[in-house]
Structure formats: structure tokens, C-alpha cells
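Internal QA ticket QA-208
Title: Verify multi-chain structure generation after dependency bump
Assignee: T.L.

Test input:
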Amino acid sequence: MELFDNLALGFSTAFTLTNLFYCLIGTILGTAVGVLPGLGPLATIAMLLPATFALPPVTSLIMLAGIYYGAQYGGSTTAILVNLPGESSSIVTALDGYAMARNGEAGKALATAAISSFFAGCAATLLLALFAPPLAVVALTFGPAEYFSLMVLGLVASVVLANGSVLKAVGMIVLGLLLGLIGLDVNSGIPRFTFGMPQLYDGVNFVVVAMGVFGLGEIIHNLEQGEARSIISRKIGGLMPTRADLKRIVAPVLRGTFLGSALGILPGGGAMLASFAAYALEKKVSPNRAQFGKGAIEGVAAPESANNAGAQTSFIPMLTLGIPSNPVMALMVGAMVIQGIQPGPAVLTEQPTLFWGIVVSMWIGNVFLVLLNLPLIGLWARMIMVPYHYLFPTILVFCAIGVFSLNNSAFDILLMVGFGFFGYLCAKLGMEPAPMLLGFIIGPMMEEYLRRALLLSRSDPMVFLQRPISAAMLAVAALLLVLVLLPSLQKKRAEAFQE
Amino acid sequence: MNSKAPGRTAGSQDLWSGLIFIAFGLLAMALARGYAMGHAGRMGPGYFPTVLGGVLAFIGLVLIVQAFLSSSEAVAGFSWRKAALVLGASGLFGLTVEGLGLAPAIVLIVMISGLASERFRPWPYLALGGGLSAFSVLTFVTLLGLPIPAFGPWLGF
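Actual output:
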């Protein structure tokens, strides 16, 4: 079996002392930022990027990946204990998790979250190992036309699945695409949108954008929301679920894992959407639906398995096609590029140790997370008490050092301040910044593929429709766009996000 | 549109978003006029930005029309003071980190941004700044070897 050979290769890569160590560091950090409300995996990965330049590529990606899925574990702790989602993907976990905690079943809720996440993590790792290689084989036959259409589809899908106004999300994507064009044009060598500043010739670093919008912008927005914080005083109670409890969660966990894995692969999907969808589904099909919102164990199991599965399968399009499906994956693409690896189907064949090392490390990371989370739950619970008014200056310091260390330039920091202001403005105007970051990463690639496709076809735009895969992807994109703009469906979509 | 939100400014979220998109779209198109357009088969550096700028401005226009046709959420009041403190502290860090050095720059950013919090008290924040300075100098300068001085030339080092 080829799969076993590959997994063996992965184990031999991931089981070195260095890689195990950084996997552990990543999962600990991920849990910590997941637990802390107001600090997410996106900002953390952006802050730590400069520190990973010195590490070998596999090691740094193993650590960064650990932060992302670790945060899904940590987020549930805060949601259950203080009714505050530590992470956007655990918003729905708070509904029943906190209700369970109020019933004196906090320990059981935490254990359920950990068990569900662990199962989903293992299943998603296996899916990644099974489906990524065939997908990469298909992707190797892609020409520039297919890539361009795929990016269009990805961007459109991210709009459809995003929360809020469709039109604004499209606008933010286009704005992001434009921002991505800043710098020297690769074909002509002409500086574009640089306003004569040589610091911009290499383009704006995506870490600067991410930290400005998601770091600084969020801080101002959080400070504005007021700093009230509910305090946990409840006892955590017994940890282990009973046999009857376990029986109750089997089906929800399976459904959540399946739904989460599927939604994670979709562009624009990932952990948050997965958890929302899984909770909504469970509320419809569960035999105990009357109990939902009042402390149903299914209401914790389903979204927690879904968000972890989604976090892991969202690596599939990134590793096989080189196309990020959400902003965290966009940062991972950036991390790979900095390490000198061009993400795409070639990674699997040219760097098998990298690919399989990451896959296996995710499984190891999930084991770490269960070991870390259940016995140390008291420690994490204490961390929630860190007040935000001491946390935000700390985040600010690490953002500033992280951005400064990119090029040792004050210019980058001032640019980050500019994006911070823009991020605050976006929050005030209901404009989602995540699509902008996606557009920003994809912008230069998209222009390049468009140029190449039209050059090869001698400026015949029909090339996008004549090639079957490309045409199919554009058709799906168009269909999605039409569907989402239909007024009747728009209402349904709003309802779905309401739940 | 109702006026229950306290301290709201004139105009709705959609209106202002639309204006921002139009401004950026037109700016992109205007700047792209300076780059060769080429044609679809051999695109110049101006082609893609011009198209994108046009699309962005059009989206902005639709948003504005929408804002007048249907009610959208009003813009809530801005916390200018908090924004200025957080952004200003970060900017100042960039301008002083090489001159003053990492340690004093961190104390500055913590103290200034701290003023944005309603719970600011000088001593705890000074302690936080000192702690973060020590930690950062140790990790970033000593361990990771970033080329930033702990104390800079402006202080005579």
C-alpha cells in the first residue's frame, strides 16, 4: 500500500526530536491563544512568522499548523467556562457548553469537546492523507486557464460562505486584489502603485496587512466594546462522561466530522463555518433537539468535531493546489513562499517529506492536545482570567516587534498602523476584512495566470470556456453568484447565519 | 433607518463603504493610466489594475444606490481617542525603536497604548512594560539575534 509507505515517511519526519518539540510548542501556543479571547490564531501566526524563518521549512510549518488546530481546542474551553467564545469557531459551542457548565457539568462538557475534537482530528488527518495525492495528480494537468478559473471560483465561494453583505465582500476582494498588485510588475519591471517609494517596490508584506487589520484593528474594536468580563467561580466537576453520554455523542460526532471535513475543503470554508453548520444540522436531526440551548451534550460534540475537522481539511486545497481557502491558509502560503517553497501540486512529488511530515504531525498534535487539555484544564481555566487591559498592550508589542523584524524598517510599522486604521474603519462599516486578505494573496497569481492564459490563446477569451475543467469551474462560480444574489435565498442565508 | 444608536454619525454603513470603494477604484484607475495598457493578448502592467479599479468603483456605486433605496445600519460613533492612542503608540515604536533601543520603545508603547484602557493605572503598566522589555530583549536580541539594540544611540549606547 502506497498510503502506508507515505505515512511511514511522514512518521519518520515528524518523529524527530526537533519536530516533536515544535509540534508541542505549536499546540501549546494554539491552545493558549484559543483560550484567550481577543487573540486568535491568525494574529498569532502572523506574529510568529518572523521567528520561524530560521527554522527548516517542515519544522516551521508543523508548528504553525499546530497553532491553528490547537486554537480550535482552546477556544472551546473559554466558550464552556465563561460563555465567551475564545475563538470565532467556538461561538456555537458556548450555547450548550455554557449551559452544561451552569448545570454543574463543566468538566463533562470540556471532556466531550476534547474527545470529539480528537476523533475528528484523527479522521480528518486520514482524509487528508487519502484525498490530497489524487487531487494533486489532477492539479498537475492544470494550465493557466484552469488556475485562473479555480481562483475565480475560490474567491466567489468565499463570498457566498462569508457572513454579511455579499456586495461588500466582493468589493473587499477586489480591493485586496488591487493591494496585491503594489510593487514591481514581474513582466515589465514597472513599479505600480508605489507613489515613488522604493520601500514598496517589493510589494506590501502580507504580515503587515494581517497584523494591521487583524491585530491593531481588532484591538481598537475590542477596546471600544467595553472591557467587562464575566468571571468563572463554578467548580469544573467530574471530567468523564458516562457510557450513556458517550453513546449519545457517537452520531453527532460522526455527522460533525463529515460535515466539517467537507466544508473545510471548500474555499472560504474552514473551522468557523463548519461549527455553525454542524450545530444547525444537529438541531434539526437530533432526537434530543428540545434540550438544545439548555445543555445538550450533542450541542457541544457536533460543532467541536466539525471545527477541528474543518481546520485540518482546509489544508487540502492549500497543499495540493497552492490556493488558500481562508486567511489562515493564506498566511501558511506566505510562510511557504518565504521558505522558498512554491505551494502547489508539485510539493507532493518534489517534497514528499514536507507534505507527509505535516500530515502526520497533525495526528501527533491531536494526541498532544488531548494529553495537554484534560489534565491541565485547571491551568487553562486560570488563563482566561488574564484581563484584556493587560493583554492588549502585550499583543501590540509582539505585533510591532514582528513587523519591524521583517525588514528592520520603521516604514513597515507605519504601514501596519495605516492598515490598522483601515481595519477599524472596516469594523465600523460592516466590511469583512478576511476576503480582502484572500484577494491580497491571490491577486498577483491571478493576474499572472490571466496574462499567460490569454497569451497562449492569442487573446481569445473563449479559452476559459473551451477547456472543460475551466468551464465547469466558471459555471459553478456563476451559479453560486446568481444563487446568492437571488432575494429569496438571501433571506434564507441571513437566517442560517442567525442561528 | 432609525436613530436609536447613540452618537451615530451621518450616513449609513453602506453609503460610506460605497464611497470608500469608489475612491479606491478611481484612484487605481487614475494611477494605472501611467502604465502601458497593452491588449488582452499581451497585457501591459496597466490592464489588470484598470479593470479591477473599474469593477471596484462600480460596486461602490451600486452600494450607494442601495443605501438610498433601502435602509442599512447606521454607523456607530467612533472612539477616536482610543484609536489614536493605539495607532499612535505603535507608530511611535517604529520611529523610536532604533534610536532609543528595544527596551525603552516597549515601555513607551505599553504606557501610551495603555491610556486607551479605562483601567489604566501607571504602576501596573510600568511593571508590564518592564517585564515585556526584559522578556523581549532576552528572546529577540539575545536568543534570536535580531539586529536591534536593547538600548539605542539616542541614549548614548
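Spot checks passed. Residues 103 and 134 of chain B are 7 Å apart (CA to CA).
Status: verified.
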